[in-house]
Amino acid sequence: MLSAPINLQLVRRLFADATKIRPSDFLRREIATRMREKLELVKIQPAALLDAGCGESDDIAELQKNYPAALAYGVDASLSMLEAGRDKHLAAKSAVGRLLSKWTPAALRQEASQYLLCADFARLPMANTSVDLIWSNLALHWHPQPDLVFAEWRRVLRTDGLLMFSCFGPDTLMELRQAFAEVDDLPHVLPFVDMHDFGDMLVNAGFSTPVMDMEKITLTYGSANKLLEDVRALGGNPLMTRRQALLGRKAHARLLAALDKRKDADGRIAVTLEVVYGHAFRPVNRKTAAGESIVRFDLPKKPT
């Protein structure tokens, strides 16, 4: 089931330069903080965890503060982002870094407890039932087939393992979508999946008790150019149906004018981000790989 005609090769190219992505990292860090607050409500002590869409692996470092004994895997489709994260953490291990940086001892032990893998979310190079926690922060919307991703995540989760993720919902960048509609009829913003559809996909993939939540965050900009700069830093437009050439000077001017028309009384342009949160557990298997039902009997304990 396609969520959108996303070109995964183009996604990798859009994330090929970590320096272009970092200006939007403030948002990932904020959403990660909100996700960790939700995670604190779940009693779990994973022996192994996976960050799907780990980027520069900043979330892994934070998760290892809470789970210092856990073996941590990071998966990302962009080799460049993984290499940038590796270089950043190696720099943090230097003598000067130990004195001046904010990295904790748990985060510094990357070579002993972290394994970074370049792979497609839907085809993980990992064994069945190999992790207890899958974490994915603002990454799932970059994949064209989230239903296959959920099935793959369930495969690598152990029984009673937890999946926790965040991604953008349908109202994200709706102001920008409306402004682009005044320029041409081509798609410039991803058609993000509704949280109820994600809930259905989780059930179909075999997860139990999925819980979906949503909130809207509003960012405001004094400049249309700064707004567009931050949107590009979020990842850009990887749609196969996108405009193949640059906008052109006149079309770009129309876009800026359309955004400027949306300025409020304070001269600010509002941009909506709909953030979808989801978590679910992998239940005990009810069927064998051959499709046969599994019946469990809880026998009474013998008196001592």
Helix content: 25-40%
Q: How many β-strand stretches?
A: 7
- Counting helices, strands and paired strands, the structural category is alpha/beta
Largest sheet: 7 strands, mixed
Distance between the termini: 55 Å
Shape: globular
Rg from alpha-carbon coordinates: 21 Å
Low-confidence stretches: 101-112
User: What is the tally of helical segments?
Assistant: 13
Summarize the structure.
With 304 residues, the protein is of the alpha/beta class. The protein contains 13 helices and 7 strands. A 7-stranded mixed β-sheet has the order 3-2-1-4-5-7-6, with helices on both faces.
Question: What do you see in this structure?
Answer:
By secondary structure, the protein is α/β, with parallel strands linked by helices. It has 13 helices and seven strands. The protein has a seven-stranded mixed sheet, with helices on both faces. Helix 9 (146-156) crosses helix 11 (195-204) and helix 10 crosses helix 13.
Record the SSE blueprint:
Blueprint: H1 8-14, H2 18-21, H3 25-39, E1 48-52, H4 58-66, E2 71-76, H5 79-92, H6 95-100, H7 105-108, H8 110-113, E3 114-118, E4 131-137, H9 146-156, E5 157-168, H10 174-181, H11 195-204, E6 208-221, H12 224-234, H13 249-260, E7 269-281
Parallel strand pairs: 1-2, 1-4, 2-3, 4-5
Antiparallel strand pairs: 5-7, 6-7
Which structural traits does this protein have?
globular, alpha/beta, 7-stranded mixed beta sheet, 304 residues
